[in-house]
Amino acid sequence: MTFRLPFCLLFSLVFLQASLANAQKKTNGTFEPEELVNTLMGTDSKPELSNGNTYPTIGVPWGMNLWTPQTGTMGHGWAYTYAADKIRGFKQTHQPSPWMNDYGQFVIMPVTDKLRFDQDARASWFSHKSEVAKPYYYSVYLADHDVTTELTPTERAAQFRFTFPKNDNSFLVIDALDRGSYIKVIPSENKIIGYTTRAARSNPKNFKNYFVIYVDKKFSLARTFRGKALVKDSLELTAAHTGAVIGFKTTKGEKVHLKVASSFISFEQAELNLSRELAQDDFEATKRKAKAQWNQTMSRIKVEGGTDEQQRTFYSCLYRTLFFPHKMYELNAQNQVVHYSPYTGQTLPGYRFAGTGFWDTFRALYPFLNLMYPGINKEMQEGLINDFKEGGWLPEWSSPGYADIMVGNNSASVVADAYLKGLRGYDIQKLYEALVHGANNEGPISAIGRKGAEYYKTLGYVPYDVKINENAARTLEYAYDDFTIYQLAKALKKPQAEIDLYAKRSQNYRHLFDPATGLMRGKNQNGTFQAPFNPFKWGDAFTEGNSWHYSWSVFHDVQGLVNLMGGKENFVKKLDSVFTLPPVYDESYYGSVIHEIREMQIANMGQYAHGNQPIQHMIYLYNYAGAPWKTQYWARETMNRMYKPTPDGYCGDEDNGQTSAWYVFSAMGFYPVCPGTTQYVLGAPLFPKMTITLENGKKLVIEAPKNSAENLYVQSLKMNGKTYGKNFVDHFDLLKGGTLRFDMGPEPNKKRGKGESAFPYSFSRQ
User: Which region ranges are annotated with the description Disordered (predicted)?
Assistant: First the structure.
């Protein structure tokens, strides 16, 4: 019989921890949002059911390297799961998602008593009761070795502190992992160097993650291993799977320190990264700097009021928006920005980022960066230019090179939205060239350029019967992407014929609308709709969803969709149906129930599948049909029910900050339904007060003093003291700073936002 801590007690402990953290925040007089983060939010996941599919990520915002305790086996995407009992090591990671897996990883692990280096033999039992997991610091007691491990990061380096017992046989294992690695122990310098070539989901050229490790204690033993066998006669080894073990005697409570850094360029660059970022700092100095970096980044948004749970959820979500894409650039000896290119295998000048999928993140993550952190997105845009120059295409999933997964050409949205929201100082003409190239050509793999491009250009859609999977989803996303190219072409004053071409293509969504069902439906090459048609069938014509999810993917022309669905009243009823239909499904395309289906089924919200991205904007579409109070209700309902600051705190894959960005935006009281325009569609704020310090130094204050669990409906809104009746706010108005003051109440105001003059942008209404 296995005894487990009752969930109610577990939740009480989490809540108590939250209360204590909040009390500390208030008592010491400083604002410390990083202390409200639960880095374990979303870690109680498995392939069959995602509650986030996250791992406790120890790093700094957008750091090149991240770290995590590793409970899973080597190469397993679920590196850390909350239900696990043992830790196998502490892994440097760049993993954006368990489904994408990792690249450039290696592992460090303390061991005592016996020289155990195999991942199963060295694994140690641990308890969450003796675990401290913060964004900038991690500590855990490894029971089988009687060792406490602590680590704290910089962008490209980290420090470890191991507290050992009295033992004549204390060891540190450095595992460079399989699929090609190198290790060298240099006892005279208390140093280990190595590299790993392990990469998943793409085939980067000449890929190596070089690492250097310094130990502050002399080695009494030094060995290398190949696979599961110790090597007797060499401290330098190249093989499919290499590693090293160093040993020494330790006294009770003795602390052994490691300084570690890595580089995608060379050992010399790794040494430079270490000396530059760690310098003469001890462990505590690095920890203070990492904490300060998180504080500076997260303090840009200060929430007041609400419950402890809401504050912890908010800042835990904000934390998740600040990792990916991660930096893959470094500073050389001349302090020039350089990067390893996965396309050429060379070291080249300029910025580069990796580890993100635009199918997920174009929706809210990148718009969030454009509002709150445009400086880092400017670097990311420069990185995209280098992707195009070096690889010939913009990535749609980078891991760290082109990964062949997901659909769409949503780099167009990411590029256009940044420029249209004011980012400047990079070669937008080169990026526009990249967008046009991607929009009109198939790539060498299906996930770059546009699969089915010739069909799309000639027929206006990707046909159902030409053996191109998920064709309706591709068509709908291509049409939206064409809209963003149209918007950018106008802003760049391109030839009118070119502008008109993409304007026309943006209407291609109309080809798939089936008047008989009022939904989007796959269409054959001869113009007939696919048959039979089951709107509850996942996959097939759609991507990780069904027709009820994808029929709303007309971000840029909701009015056009309203018209197709028979007008505002019918449109609102159709939106309502998403929540009132039973959570039935047809999984036959996949052959089994995928986790996204299961997450919709158990959510008790009908066909609304918030755990996956295609439908996440749908709640905000009531604003386009004169029923904004329904947006207010369902946004609050989703925040309350689908997010908690707990290990099972998400309702599906977190996905590189996208699902978290939905929460952060929704808590602000607005959401970017259509990136590529400058409008945010209104919901209702979650907190009585939020103060946002923009990168330009202006302050935006969002006030809702009557806000509560009962008072969730907007009665009126004032912008800078003047009554504001529209269902959206403009990006450039927000950048001026000022105040949005919401008057909240327990009943919906069904008069506000009802007229068409209040509706957000639609292509058909311009």
Answer: 743-766
